[in-house]
Input
Amino acid sequence: HLTMAPCLFHVVKWLLYACIASHMLENAQGIAPRWSWETVMPFFHSCNETGLWSDEALDVISKFPMVTVEKGQGFLSNSSGYAEDHIITQLAAVKARDPTIQTVFYMNSVLNWFFYAFAEEYKNMPADWLYDSTTHKPLRLKGDPMFQPQPSKGMLVFNHAIPGVRSLWKDVCYNAVNSGVVDGCYADASDQDSHRTENYLNASDRAAFEAGKVITSADITRKFGGEPGKPYPQNATGVLIGKKPDQEGINAIQIEDFEANEEHIQILLEAVAHGYLVQVHVSLKVEYSVTCGCSCITNELAAFLIGMGKYSYFGYGTWISPNLADVKSRWCPDFFTRPLGKPLGSSTRYANGIWRRSFSLGTNVTFDAHTNKGTIDWSGPSTEVEMTTRP
Output
């Protein structure tokens, strides 16, 4: 099962789904995520390659107001089906626990990951592939090595310069939302020149390709009640998550490699200044965030609190969750259930490199830009700890 050989039944099934749902695509709607200033708002982003998460894992995952299921969901399981099936089935289980959780369906704007059903459809559209401007051969690129095995020659690239390809990509997102258990899509690699595609395209081909990616993102952003480049609206009917604060076509991003330093605080501040929904994901380069967990990411959380705004969410962990212990480690009651409150203004950076910010419920934060160390003076204890100790 490691190669996940395509099954004609599931290809036909997803093509049929597309036909049945085509008349509903204009009405694809989800919900906006819960938001509160009372505490730090976390998000969960991962997958379980071996199948559905257990009830005990869902007990933890359902505490998060926003949950994204990655592409590798069920990839190594014995169950048939494609990524679309596995992701939607898992998100349905999350929604069953709490329908107010905003659920997000993973997609890649560039790579035609071979274990999706619509990858089979795109394989049969050679006239619409992206081609190397010099060799005129189909452009094939490798993906995140965490997800294995991959085709040795790489994967085809979605050519967003072509309207039909944009429609194919958007319809997969809309069909997921039309399932009734998905609220939006994560558009990985939607930022400019992702996967170094610029190395294979001449100026005109590159411009058309990148402009097409922006059109795809902008169309979906508007479909979910937003406006590209404008603040994420409280009455949004879903979300399309991009990658960079200066990216066109979006109103939400994930900073996926966030580190406790001034450079990343500035990136967060830029996104917050736009009013974007922002997921701040601690970089996997910060190895102790995975091996140690909650007790080792105070500096990253402090940096987050210095820059965060409304609809800013904090999370960490690998894209593939290996076991129940890993899932449990991602919920940090000492961070996520302590009193915060609205910020009493923007953060202040002093000449000595110290950032400071205070919040209305009494929590105070400092971050030293020279040492990259942060301190959080919480105003009260974890409410979850209090609840678990009551008779």
User: Anything to note?
Assistant: Residues 1-24, 386-391 have pLDDT under 50 and may be disordered.
